[in-house]
Structures are given as structure tokens and as C-alpha cells.
Amino acid sequence: MEHAAGTSPRVQKTDHEWRAQLSPEEYAVLRQAATERPFTGEYTDTKTTGVYECRACGTELFRSDTKFDSHCGWPSFYDPADTDAVILREDRSLGMVRVEVLCATCHSHLGHVFEGEGYGTPTDQRYCINSIALRLVPAEA
Fold first, then answer.
1. Which amino acids are annotated catalytic?
2. What is the pTM assigned to this prediction?
3. For 48-81, how does the pLDDT look when each residue is reduced to its tens digit (9 = 90+)?
4. Which domains does the chain have, with CATH numbers?
5. How far does CA 105 lie from the centroid of its chain?
6. pLDDT digits (tens, 9 = 90+) for 107-124
7. Of residues 65, 69, 74, 86, the one with CA closest to residue 43
8. How far is Cα 62 from Cα 50, in angstroms, rounded to an integer?
């Protein structure tokens, strides 16, 4: 599998190590690019203030202040916490051309990013991310 700019992940584990760390559902999404069913994810409608980390490696990926209601069935963000937090890669699976979003640290599959859908966000982008690929760390009250 080729990754953006030919970079290697900073966190590298064997397939056996990933399977030991992740639940079968987490493994399917994060390591095999599966997609959770729409409107079933833990964070689809979450309004909690905090930081969303990669469930596989703990890297900060998104913040709650960029999360918005897209009504698409998955958590949606208009911008990653840090441009270097994610890698974007062309995805031609399922007979479509999409842009896959990967964690830059461990190269786990997170979801896809779409542009120009008219949501009126500051970036005009929708990072459509699987809940199971994320872990919400609530802000201190």
C-alpha cells in the first residue's frame, strides 16, 4: 500500500499486534478500511467539548470545535486539528473516486474527506470519519 509522499508510519506494529490491541470491529475499520454502518457510531451526534484521538495510536486528529452536524450518519469535521495529523490518499475502491483520510502517525484508515457539498463550513470540506476510528477525550471542566 502506498502512502502519501512515500512516508512510513511512525507507529508500526505487526498485523498480530494490531489484532491483539484492537477489537475485531476496530481492526476492520482502522486496519482494513471497512466502514461502520451509518447512524450507529458512538460519536455521530456527540456535542461534548474535547479532542478526538486516533483509537489505534492516540494521536490528536480533530477537535470538537470543528465538528458539525452533517446528518450523513458519521461524525463530520471541517478541519483536522493539525494539517500534519492526517494523510489524504486517492481511493478508487467500490467504483468511485474518493479521498481517503489516514492517521499520519500509524496510517490507520479513518474515513474520507469530501469538498464542495454546500455545508457552509469555513473550509467547505467534510471529513467523514468512522466513530470507531476515534476516541473522544473530553475537555477538563
1. 128
2. 0.91
3. 999 999 999 999 999 999 999 999 999 999 999 9
4. 12-138 (2.170.150.20)
5. 12
6. 999 999 999 999 999 999
7. 74
8. 9
